[in-house]
Write a structure and sequence with these properties.
Blueprint lengths: L4 H33 L3 H20 L5 H17 L3
Helix pairs in contact: 1-2, 2-3
């Protein structure tokens, strides 16, 4: 157990941050799945910027690595180009 007030606060704070990161990451993964399931190119083009923005926010907050985000965005854009109208 922690012996200092600051260490106790850090334990509490880490739990809050962990939960926030988990929610952001899960919502981004759900958005990616939703984008992959779309059959319409028009709808996918409309959703892609918001998914890319979500990924950029995860990178900014050090939840995922920048290269992982780039790989996901690349695969998603490749997927969108293969869709029919």
């Amino acid at each position: 157990m922690a012996n200092h007030k600051s260490a106790l606060k850090r334990i509490r704070r880490n739990e809050v941050v962990k939960l926030r990161n988990k929610v952001q990451h899960k919502s981004t993964r759900n958005a990616i799945k939703k984008l992959k399931d779309l059959k319409s190119k028009k709808a996918a083009d409309k959703l892609f910027p918001s998914v890319a923005s979500m990924l950029d926010k995860l990178v900014k907050n050090n939840i995922i690595h920048a290269n992982k985000s780039a790989n996901i965005k690349s695969k998603l854009s490749k997927h969108i180009t293969t869709l029919k109208k």
